[in-house]
Amino acid sequence: MTNLLIIKQCPTPMALLDKDLHLIGASDAWYKFTKAPMENAPKIPFTDILPKGTRSLVNAVRESKEKSRVIEGEDYNYQPEGKIQWIYYKIQPSDNEFIIYLNDITSEKENLKTKIFLEETSKVAQIGNWFYDVKNDLLEWTVVTKKICDVSQDYVPTLEKFLQFFKEGKHVEQALKNINSAINKGNDFDLELQILTAKGEEKWVRFRGHVEKAKDKAVKIYGTLQNIDPQKTTELQLALQEKQIKSSKRALAENKQAFKSIFNSTFQFTGFLNIKGRLVDINEPALNFGGIETEDVINKYFWDTYWWQGSIKEQKKLKKNFKKAIRGEFVRYEAKILDKNNNKVYVDFSLKPVLDHKKRVSFLIAEGRVIQEMVEARKKLKESEKLHRTLLELSPTGLALNDAMSGEFLDMNNSFKQSTGYSSNELLKMTHLDVIPKTDKNKELRVLKEVLNQGKYGPYEGHYLNKNKQLVPTLITRVLITNSTGRKLIWSVIQDITHIKEKEEELLEVINVASEQNNRLLNFAHIVSHNLRSHASNFSMLIELLGVEEDVFKKVEIIDMLNSASGNMLETISNLNEIIAINTNLNIKTETVNLKAEIDEAFTNISELIKNSFAEVENNVPEDIDIKVVKAYLESILLNIFTNAIKYKAPNRYPVIKINAEQIKGFTVLSVEDNGRGIDLEKHGHKLFGMYKTFHGNSDARGIGLFITKNQIDAMKGKIEAESEIDKGTKFKIYFNENY
């Protein structure tokens, strides 16, 4: 029998039960702990003296009796004030008796829970703790601290190693300064610094330290290391965005001013119309052209303004075309408007619709370019063509025009019809070989081959079959021409051997002059548009860059580039003026230039385009190669080829341009190779150099560059070839005639 007196005096909660689980005795500490009544009545059930609500303890007592073994465990109950009380219990059977031990472990549970909460909070907030014992030079890190620094959990830190994690420069300097201040002066610190983790990753951290002092000396430092990289990155990005917004606003104001300056300094007639047709803005050149003020035309219907008062017909045409434009159609035509002297002047006029984000027309851009000289030149050309037609019809020499490939008759004069005996309708249904005797057909096929290769063949003796199948002896000259659509045609001059020798040369000259003059006028118009656009684009990019650049030295550099671009543009304009003289006099002025130097100058003109596209250029052209060319043509050719190499770059790689040159068989051959998108030559090769032919769907593609380039090369008696593969790039070979 257990000594009841010992149990009663036990300082811990203890109770003794008999084999039927009735209370035999308990310590005073038991009654105080359980708040059970201290009754002396025998046979009190054990459930009455246990802490209320401890179901696990009740079940454990019963299980101990049934299985006669020691049982330990934990249980809890609610105190009157609502707090949870945690209880450790141990039930020990002995000689048909049971001893129950109890212990209050609430504080231990709370401490454990607090520790777990702190650990989980640290993990979620990525806050690691560190502790430094100053006296013993001992540094300890928690799990989260090691995780932030990307080290293993068995890593042993030291203060020296800790400081090495901070990024070089101001970050490690501030960390070292504040650690020393904490140790020597007892100062706490709270810093935001960058560290470089063991894996080489840069992170922003909040580095805090609190000093525990004894006799004004630092004894221990308790600190935290919090990963604030996402927040800091966001903060820096927001600051950068705010700076960019301010810069953008400033640039917008500057661009607006620049736009206004350009808008008012252009040689074009430019204005903006609302969807009702009222003029909302107009540039100064247009006002000066009409000798009027802004208030005379703003907010008026465009067709009611001064410029259109010279002709009711022109007003009606404008209204009709305005309706087309307001439906989204680009309209361009030749119009006659009044200048300040009340003279009617021809302009190349256009209405361009501008769409909003819903693809609806929001306003129209009206543009006009004075083309009076071009119209007069065209009239002269028409007069020349009329003269040519008159000569064609009145000439005693037979003339016939055939398609170079099919041989079909397209035109002929009376002399040819009279010599063959066929009417126009009959000949237009026939081909060239239909009026050639069988004995001459092989010869004619050889002649055709020579004409296609050389552009001209003859004079040579030949025969035609007239309608009566009679042979007509002739002296024939055949000339290859290309019309504005690129179609190859053959003019045939069928001369009387004895009487028309002189007339042959005269008419050939007329034909060549008319064709050459027509082609040169067309080519010149496109050269002006294309070349000046390249310079304008370079100006625009440099001005935009000047607007957003804050560095004074870089601004000076950009201004130098603008001066250089301005000089280049003036030179281009000068060259184009020479081309006007060329087209007027039909005597092309050539000069000898250094090929490598011209290529370098072309790249200087598009330097910003190269820089913005990260293009790589390899100019392997020897420095000693000189060529004889029309310089304006060469400049246009180089700009077209180089800008195309960048414009049609592959989307998944930076553009690379390789340039080489060699001299073969009377030609200097310049090859320009890029790694861009490439062209399907099998599909598009036949129209690669055609006018307005585009192949990649670029919104800024005009399809005129390669057409101009080929015409310029042809004019200098050269040729151009292309090699290309889809997604591998394109290589152009330009043959400059050394005998030109």
UniProtKB/TrEMBL annotation:
InterPro entries: HATPase_C_sf, HATPase_dom, His_kinase_dom, PAC, PAS, PAS-assoc_C, PAS-like_dom_sf, Sensor_kinase/Photoreceptor
Keywords: Kinase, Phosphoprotein, Transferase
Broad class of enzyme this protein falls into: transferase
Residue stretches making up the PAS domain: 384-455
SUPFAM superfamilies, per database record: ATPase domain of HSP90 chaperone/DNA topoisomerase II/histidine kinase, PYP-like sensor domain (PAS domain)
Domain PAC, first and last residues per copy: 331-383
Protein name in the entry: histidine kinase
UniProt source species: Galbibacter pacificus
